[in-house]
Write a structure and sequence with these properties.
With 453 residues, the protein is an alpha+beta fold. It has helices at 6-16, 37-56, 72-77, 80-83, 148-152, 155-161, 207-224, 271-276, 321-332, 368-383, 397-407, 417-422, 443-451, and strands at residues 19-21, 33-35, 61-64, 69-71, 85-90, 97-99, 121-124, 127-129, 141-143, 168-177, 192-202, 233-237, 247-255, 258-267, 301-302, 309-310, 313-320, 333-339, 342-347, 356-362, 388-391, 411-415, 424-429, 435-439. The chain folds into 2 domains: 6-73 and 145-329, 2-Layer Sandwich (BirA Bifunctional Protein, domain 2), CATH 3.30.930; 354-451, Anticodon-binding domain (Rossmann fold). Helix content is 29%, strand content 28%. The longest helix has 20 residues, at 37-56.
């Protein structure tokens, strides 16, 4: 039985060290979470899977890691400073603040049902900073609300350092910050979150072709790499396009309370490079951009065949890594009836995503001979650099199996007294609970086989 609610995952995350409430010993902070020993591993594996698909598997995409703090002018010309806000209303009776566009009924308070609602006002979503030794407290910089804008401002740097013909892309994974009014859904909507974004630069005549290509490519990745069933995913076109967009569609996952966005694929036309380029009047920019008198660089592309110099269009794919992790855990979560009133909880993660790749378990605790053999197996597996390998020396084989079921370890390797006689161990498979006996020298190959399945 899969997870019925997000609360199933919340409980598992706390119990098994995936995600903790941020600042918990002081009562927490809304929209802030800390990733524990297994959460950091799962997040890392999702990041690695994305990076491998976007960069290592392609010749036309380069990586970038830009600063979290940016010059204020970036956000002025991107339109964020003036327009990146939500409509905020306040209940005059109970004081609850709400995003007007997310209210169940815009005439009633979601908290107390009162109809005494204030007029909406713009609520700035960017987190402003006051930096510098002589700062007087005024906002003169921002924590980035997305990774995309710092990618656009590095367009020329990347192109000069690593020349490409169109189409080509720049990919970035990193933290972003938004002053959310009402963080919700566990790690679904937070004030500090992680994005994995690709900005793919194309000739304007090819924009629709590549928008469709990336829709298909990204949907396939969710299915094939993350293991999300196709029937749990759908495309949802935007009913109302943002001012910069020519086309926009979301990949939505079916969470327990309904479909919601996990990734967006947008045709941003020439808005972004056009907004930040020097000499805007030298180009036929199609998007509506602010006049830029501060940029020092022309963010244009010179076609080597035609000699034409123009502003490329951008096809963007933007995934929330935290949302991806939540979707993966929800989909992998299973409660199984073992009969006789017994059940087990198991995360049937793709083995490549599992926080722990294998656990080595001596059948009895602190038996020197068993520990020596177990440590030898652990050392061999760790030399393979395949991820986290754990040694369990508690002596309770049943509890160890259940713990590793819950954190998604694909295989446990049990060392027992028979091992000392014939150099064989028991492989216990997570999904089927099948147990097979193999020679110790076969273990590395068997583990690799499992991870590559």
């Amino acid at each position: 039985m899969p997870a019925k609610t997000v609360n199933d995952i919340v409980a598992l995350c706390k119990r098994r060290g995936f995600i903790f409430t941020g600042s918990e010993i002081y009562g927490g902070l809304g929209g802030a979470y800390d990733y524990g020993p297994y959460g950091v591993e799962l997040m890392k594996n999702i990041r690695n899977a994305w990076w491998n698909s976007m960069i290592y598997s392609r010749d036309d995409v380069e990586g970038l890691d830009a600063a979290l703090i940016s010059n204020r002018l970036l956000w002025k010309y991107s339109g964020h400073e003036a327009g990146f806000s939500d409509p905020l209303v306040e209940c005059k009776k109970c004081g609850t603040r709400m995003r007007q566009d997310k209210m169940k009924d815009q005439t009633k308070c979601d908290n107390c049902g009162s109809t005494e609602i204030s007029e909406p006002r713009a609520y700035q979503l960017m987190m402003g900073l006051s930096i510098g030794a002589t700062s007087d407290g005024a906002v003169n910089a921002y924590l980035r609300p997305e990774t995309a804008t710092t990618t656009y401002t590095n367009f020329k740097n990347v192109l000069d350092a690593k020349p490409h013909k169109l189409p080509f892309g720049i990919a970035q994974i990193g933290k972003a910050f938004r002053n959310e009014i009402s963080p919700r859904g566990f790690v679904f909507r937070m004030r500090e979150f992680e994005q994995a974004e690709l900005q793919y630069f194309v000739n304007p005549v090819d924009d629709e072709k590549y928008h469709k290509m990336w829709m298909e490519t990204r949907l396939a990745w969710w299915i094939d790499v993350l293991g999300i069933p196709a029937e749990k995913l759908r495309f949802m076109p935007h009913e109302k396009l943002a001012h910069y967009a020519k086309a926009a569609v979301d990949i939505e996952y079916q969470f327990p309370d309904g479909f919601d966005e996990v990734e967006g694929i947008h045709n941003r036309q020439d808005f972004d490079l056009g907004s930040h380029t020097k000499g805007q009047k030298d180009f036929q920019i199609q998007a509506n951009v602010l006049e830029n008198r501060d940029s020092t660089t022309k963010l244009s592309y010179s076609d080597p065949q035609s000699g034409e110099n123009f502003i490329p269009y951008v096809i963007e794919t933007a995934m929330g890594v935290n949302r991806a992790m939540l979707a993966v855990m929800l989909e992998a979560y299973n409660e199984e009836d073992l009969g006789d009133g017994k059940t087990r909880t198991v995360l049937k993660l793709k083995p490549a995503l599992s926080p722990v790749k294998a656990a080595v378990i001596p059948l009895a605790r602190n038996v020197p001979e068993l520990l020596e053999i177990s440590n030898g197996i652990v050392a061999k597996l760790r030399k393979m650099a395949i991820g986290r390998i754990e040694l369990e020396n508690s002596g309770n084989i049943g509890k160890n199996y259940r713990r590793h079921d819950e954190i998604g370890t694909p295989v446990c390797i049990t060392v027992d007294h028979q091992t000392m006689e014939d150099n064989t161990v028991t492989l216990r498979y997570r999904d089927t609970m099948e147990q097979v006996r193999v020679a110790i020298e076969e273990v590395p190959a068997k583990v690799l086989e499992i991870l590559n399945a």
